[in-house]
Description:
This protein is α+β, with helices and mostly antiparallel strands. It has one domain (about 5-405): FAD/NAD(P)-binding domain (3-Layer(bba) Sandwich), CATH 3.50.50. The protein has helices spanning about 15-25, 65-70, 75-80, 115-130, 180, 245-250, 255-265, 315-335, 340-370, 375-390, 390-405, 425-430, and strands at about 5-10, 35, 60, 80-85, 85-90, 100, 110-115, 135, 140-145, 150-155, 160-170, 185-205, 210-215, 220-225, 235-240, 275, 280-290, 295, 295-300, 305. Strands 5, 6, 12, 13, 14, 15, 16, 17 and 20 form a nine-stranded mixed β-sheet that branches. Strands 1, 2, 8, 9, 10, 11, 18 and 19 form an eight-stranded mixed β-sheet that branches. Strand 18 and strand 19 form a beta hairpin. About 50% of the residues are buried. Bound molecules: flavin-adenine dinucleotide. Flavin-adenine dinucleotide (FAD) binds near residues 179, 315 and 316.
Amino acid sequence: MKHSDTDVIIAGGGLAGATLALALARVAPALKVTVAETFPLSADALPESYQPSYDARSTALAWGSRLIFEELGLWSRLSEHATPIRQIHVSDRGHFGATRLNAKEYEQQALGYVVDNRWMGLCLMRELLETDTRWRAPAEVIDMKSSEQGVSVTLKSGDEISNTTAQCLIVADGGRSGLREKLGFQPSHHNYEQNALIANVSTSESHQFTAFERFTEAGPMAMLPHGSPSHAGHQSALVWTLSDEELEAVLAMPDSDKCQRLQERFGWRLGRFTRIGQCNHYPLTLTTVDEPVRPGVALVGNAAHALHPVAGQGFNLALRGLMTLVEQFRLATEQGRSPGDFQILRRYHELHRPDWQQTVKFSDSLIRIFGQSPAPVAAARDAGLVGLDLLPGAKRLFARNAMGTGGRRAVIKKPGFNEQPSHHQRETSEHE
Ligand SMILES: Cc1cc2nc3c(=O)[nH]c(=O)nc-3n(C[C@H](O)[C@H](O)[C@H](O)COP(=O)(O)OP(=O)(O)OC[C@H]3O[C@@H](n4cnc5c(N)ncnc54)[C@H](O)[C@@H]3O)c2cc1C
């Protein structure tokens, strides 16, 4: 390996970039890692105690992602504010098909967990600050050129421009900064012509740790149990797909009318909607890059693939990819090779690609089949759900996707990284 300022530079310290940095610190500690992040890191971003907020954005972590976070020694901390999903109920408004998945059928404590993004960010930062990971923040990666050492990366911090050399640049910028395109990667986009409205809601009935995926003529919606790891409360995290016009109309409504509209769309499985919190919204596209690796560069997370959020797959898929990348980096260091070696990066992509393609297909076909209403499609919708319930093989496949256990599992375990179950986990398992 040639000398460079750092071995791996990660552009973006969001969920994907921060998780990658932590995984590298755990699994390939010989590598020098620098994270460049546009936003500053401030001390108050790491408060002593965390109070979940009603308006926080959250992510559904699949069971398989919990196993990865366990391997990274992060789960005991994360689980303090992770609401388990013990059942998933999939239904189709106006059609008779419905299917249910239950964690017990798959001999697991949960099918997945709902965790506030802010809590995940805090847990990652606290762990990362105890590692040798270097931070450049605020600093935006604005360009990269191949160099003798591997890559020369240009950083912008305020008015200051600087260059740093690395063996490999990992682009984890969420795909929105234009860096991916600037480096010549060509993403393909499919616009669903829908938006996701995200909010936390209160209901008169308890969620009983059930996640609902509901398909309606106007688009799919998800309602995820939220609020407490142990108490089956009355709060759920909503992902509601709406057309541009409907989104505009819903945003203009008073909260009581929003709850009413939601009630009409979702039905009464959670009783009455009594409150809706702050609403955020996102345009929905499927973005993927066919070849996310080049000599010295790889795209990860949303920079590589951004999926429709209703199936809750985006970050879970990203996490499995990150572990495969880390596994390949560990092998590279053991063999004295550079992490930017194209063979290493290509191998990572070959290993991750089947999971990637399968997950994109799964979440995209859910939207295409269930998000439309013409008669033949509607018949397929009924048949789909009824079939899922009647055919154990089909249901198991659906469950494996939902639980994030269908894809390849990277071999990253190293002695000393398996954590002991936390106090909370022991308590939870004792109740199960
Ligand atoms: C509404 C919604 C709901 C979702 N729900 C789920 C779910 O339930 N389950 C699931 O698995 N996934 C879900 N996802 C997907 C998940 O949120 C994404 O996969 C995940 O946030 C991607 O993280 P990322 O780090 O790749 O990108 P981001 O979170 O966008 O982070 C990118 C980071 O890079 C920084 N940055 C940007 N440009 C630069 C630059 N040039 N230089 C340096 N830093 C830069 C940014 O400041 C940011 O911190 C959802 C997505 C949406 C939109």
